[in-house]
Design brief:
By secondary structure, the protein is mostly helical. It is built from 15 helices and 8 strands. The N and C termini lie far apart (172 Å).
Length: 541
């Protein structure tokens, strides 16, 4: 309630008619004075309370502002710390990425340097090869010109001698020819062996020199690694307890696995290893991959074995197609028919004398192309002939006959050129070579098969082969000793100087070679060297 209203209420109470006895004037003044004094006291008290409240509010506001400023300062400091931490983290990440990029750049730089060095070496080799080819061509052209000159001179000398003989002898041309031929026949009967040996030796040396230069040039330009494949594969197992799970109760698991895959599983005392054996490399690979999947899966029972083997076979078929496409692309035939690509992939799992047939075919393709290039022939056609020359080995277990006949029939049905078909049919000299590409492929095939380390034979077979070579050579009359050297690629024969002549020694050498070709089967070629010498020994006393 406000102060004037309070005063008015007090005045009305004092001077109301209900009061029986009026209050005296001095008393009223005194009361009025009290009221006025109380009013001022109350007024000052209210003012003083307002000031106290205002001072308290200002104090609280100052404290609130101070706290707010301190809180804001702390937030700013925390924000600055967070920003600094983030800046440091981003800086560290940037530095790590920069270091990684620098390392990658260094690695690329080193790889580029290696490539540059390899390219430089290849360029040097190519320059040397070009110089060698140029010198060989110059030598051949010089020999041709020299032979032409000699032939012209010989024709002139023969004409002059004929005229001189007609004038001196007074015989007709027919009479002189008959007499000369009769004399030549008599002399040739005595010296035919020597003449044949001489001309054969000279022709052989010339042909060997030229063919050796061509083959060495091709082999130097293309070099490939060789690995010998075995007929067994090993599968690692985590523990010997797994062998019992592979065998199964009463052998049902191993019997199911062998019947489905067509391989032999050998489980012996060898710790941590199970051996898969088969001469069919595709079956062996399917069995090896399937056994690895079963070991990793852990569920080994007949039904699971059948599922895994079916999945692995489908996966291997896709892998075979990829391998065939990769080999065709490597040689330069990306659009080869799908049937031939599949057969090329199957050659990856085929071996010949422990040599991988697909790598052998790729090598023969490159060697054939290089030889054809040096001879001025179609390099691309020669490479195709070399790549497909052993294609019959991919299906020789499914058809009767040797792989040359099977491969030629297959290529003919696929619409391949006649040169490719004849190369597959005649590259083992089973038929007479009617095409130059067949001879090129045969030479490249022999070079690839006879590389050191390309093929591997067992010790027993190696010894038997050496004995066969020496036994066949010793059967000929006049042969005293025979030694097989160079892993059976060369045979050295010593004949008796008393029982044979030089002409007979040449004939013995040819007969031994013919006997090897008729009686033996061997990769590459066998060089036969017959030695005849006369030794005179005297003792001085």
């Amino acid at each position: 309630m406000e102060l004037p209203v309070l005063i008015e209420n007090i005045g009305n109470t004092i001077f109301s008619p209900a009061m029986a006895t009026p209050i005296s004037v001095p008393l009223s003044l005194t009361l009025l004075g009290f009221f006025v004094a109380g009013f001022f006291i109350a007024f000052f008290l209210v003012r003083w309370m307002d000031r106290l409240r205002l001072a308290d509010a200002e104090t609280k506001s100052k404290e609130i502002l101070k706290n707010a400023e301190e809180h804001a300062t702390m937030l700013i400091q925390n924000a600055e710390l967070d920003i600094r931490k983030r800046e440091l983290a981003s800086k560290e990440e940037a530095e790590a990425e920069l270091r990684k990029l620098r390392e990658e750049l260094h690695e690329r730089e080193r790889a580029l340097n290696k490539r540059d060095d390899a390219i430089t070496i290849q360029q040097d080799q190519l320059k040397k090869q070009e110089k060698l080819n140029e010198s060989t061509q110059r030598k051949l052209s010089d020999k041709v010109q020299e032979n032409n000159k000699r032939a012209a001179e010989l024709d002139k000398l023969i004409q002059a001698q004929r005229q001189t003989l007609h004038q001196i002898s007074g015989l007709s041309k027919e009479e002189a020819t008959a007499r000369i031929l009769s004399e030549l026949e008599e002399s040739l009967q005595q010296e035919s062996g020597a003449i044949i040996a001489k001309h054969e030796k000279k022709m052989k040396e010339d042909c060997e020199d030229l063919s050796r230069e061509i083959l060495l040039s091709a082999l130097q330009r293309y070099s490939a690694a060789h690995t010998a494949d075995a007929t067994t594969s090993t599968v690692d197992i985590p523990s010997d307890e797994m062998k019992g799970r592979i065998i199964g109760r009463e052998g049902r698991n191993i019997r199911t696995f062998e019947s489905i895959t067509g391989v032999d599983v050998i489980i012996d005392d060898t710790p941590g290893v199970v051996i898969v054996s088969s001469f069919d490399t595709i079956r062996r690979e399917v069995a090896r991959l399937s056994l690895q999947k079963l070991i990793l899966d852990g569920r080994i029972h007949p039904t699971r074995i059948e599922e895994i083997v079916m999945q692995t076979q489908a996966q291997l078929e896709k892998n075979i197609q990829k391998i065939g496409e990769s080999a065709a692309l490597e040689v330069g035939f990306p659009n080869m028919p799908e049937r031939l690509v599949n057969l090329l992939g199957r050659l990856h799992y085929r071996t010949s004398y422990s040599q991988n047939v697909l790598r052998h075919s790729v090598e023969v393709a490159f060697l054939s192309g290089m030889i054809a290039e040096q001879l001025g022939l179609d390099e691309r056609l020669a490479r195709r002939c070399g790549l497909l020359h052993d294609i019959g080995k991919a299906v020789d277990h499914e058809a009767e006959g040797g792989h040359p006949r099977i491969g030629s029939d297959l290529l003919k049905r696929c619409g391949e050129p006649r040169e490719v078909v004849m190369a597959a049919l005649c590259h083992h000299d089973d038929f007479r070579a009617e095409c130059i590409y067949t001879a090129i492929v045969a030479a490249a095939d022999a070079a690839s098969a006879s590389r050191p380390g390309a093929r591997r034979e067992t010790l027993e077979r190696y010894i038997r082969r050496m004995e066969e070579l020496e036994t066949i050579a010793c059967k000929f009359k006049g042969v005293e000793q025979a030694y097989a050297i160079q892993a059976g690629r060369e045979l050295r024969v010593i004949v008796s100087s008393r029982e044979t002549t030089d002409e007979q020694a040449a004939k013995i050498c040819r007969d031994i070679v013919r006997a090897f070709e008729e009686q033996l089967s061997y990769p590459g070629e066998i060089k036969v060297t017959v030695t005849r010498e006369t030794r005179c020994v005297e003792v001085a006393r």
